[in-house]
């Protein structure tokens, strides 16, 4: 299979999506993609979490015990399409900045099936 740089540009997002496709993941099927925003303190993380909930986003909020940072994970059920991922990254970056947070990337479970259709889940971070 030859890489289509229109569909899989040569950057982090394109490389992860290309690797998922190369591994046999069906990118035309919706996945639950997890986007993360990091915060230095609980108060700003909670304010951002309330904003995202008001935007009808499915989220989780937790504190990393090692770094004491707070993280919001936003769960978006979507087909892993490059332009849609980039658009959401821009939106979450803007929101993170407005609440003194920092966008921290995305990831999702890749569903790869071998010849016997056995599920071989692997995590694909970006």
Question: Can you walk through the features of this model?
Answer:
This protein has 3 helices and 5 strands, in the order H-E-H-E-E-H-E-E. The longest helix is centred in the C-terminal third of the chain and has 17 residues, at 82-98. The protein is of the alpha+beta class and 126 residues long. It starts with 11 loop residues before the first helix and ends with a strand. Strand 2 (58-63) and strand 3 form a beta hairpin. It has a single domain (12-125), classed as Alpha-Beta Plaits (2-Layer Sandwich). It has a 5-stranded antiparallel sheet. The chain has helices at residues 12-22, 42-54, 82-98, and strands at residues 31-39, 58-63, 70-78, 101-110, 122-125. 21% of the residues are buried. This is Ribonuclease E inhibitor RraB. InterPro entries: RraB-like_sf, RraB_dom. Residues 11-108 form the Regulator of ribonuclease activity B domain. Pfam families: RraB (PF06877).
Task: Please supply descriptive tags for the structure shown above.
alpha+beta, 5 strands, 33% helix, Alpha-Beta Plaits, elongated, 3 helices, 5-stranded antiparallel beta sheet, 126 residues
How are the secondary structure elements laid out?
Elements: H1 12-22, E1 31-39, H2 42-54, E2 58-63, E3 70-78, H3 82-98, E4 101-110, E5 122-125
Antiparallel strand pairs: 1-3, 1-4, 2-3, 4-5
Domain Regulator of ribonuclease activity B: 11-108
Protein name: Ribonuclease E inhibitor RraB
Pfam family, one: RraB
Q: Poorly predicted ranges (pLDDT <50, ≥5 residues)?
A: none
Please, how many domains? Answer: 1
C-alpha termini separation? 22 Å
Helix-strand string = HEHEEHEE
Overall geometry comes to elongated
Count of runs of 4 or more consecutive helical residues: 3
Domain Regulator of ribonuclease activity B: 11-108
Organism: Acinetobacter faecalis
InterPro entries: RraB-like_sf, RraB_dom
Protein name: Ribonuclease E inhibitor RraB
């Amino acid at each position: 299979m030859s890489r289509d740089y229109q569909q899989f540009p040569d950057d982090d997002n394109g490389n992860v999506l290309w690797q998922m496709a190369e591994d046999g993941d069906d990118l035309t099927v919706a996945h639950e993609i997890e986007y993360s925003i990091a915060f230095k303190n609980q108060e700003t993380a909670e304010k951002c979490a309330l904003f995202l909930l008001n935007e009808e986003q499915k989220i989780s909020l937790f504190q990393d015990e090692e770094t004491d940072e707070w993280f919001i994970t936003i769960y978006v059920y979507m087909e892993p399409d490059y332009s849609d991922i980039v658009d959401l990254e821009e939106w979450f970056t803007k929101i993170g900045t407005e609440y003194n947070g920092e966008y921290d990337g995305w990831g999702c479970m890749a569903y790869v099936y071998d010849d016997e259709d056995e599920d071989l889940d692997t995590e694909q971070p970006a």
